[in-house]
Amino acid sequence: MADSVVSSREVLPFIYTVDISLGLSATGTKTLVLGSDSEFELYGFEARTSADNSTQASAVLANSSGSVSTVNNVIQAPDNFKILIKDISTGRDLFTSSLTRSLVCGNSSNLFVPEGYRIRWPRQNQLQFDFTCLYSTFPTSMTALDITFALRGYKIFGRMA
Question: 79 is in which domain, residue-wise?
Fold first, then answer.
């Protein structure tokens, strides 16, 4: 077999997550240090928030002024936060400016966008996530916007004997 072929024993599906809770129009930063056991190959980004409706029958949206409205039969996840990602190990930004959730994670009901060209990060690489809450008024019964942002991909281990 060619050296470029990777066996299933050398690759493990893996998801890194970053959790943050934000107040109205608040910003927050989280840092993620990738594992020391392997490289990580990013397949795409995904996000869930406390404002999402699990049935996707409706969603609570924040409009450009930050006010709240409910939309029925949504296809798009609510753009209730912005994010900027920086590779602090190299000092490189992944975006030129903060982007809304749908631009990074997609606008379909599964909230996931695969990267066309996979990014492979070395062991213990550090990523910084800067979040901004887009709500100026929270939907009923919400006191904070809880975000789980995920990097879905594969851990790539060295050759096994």
Answer: 15-156
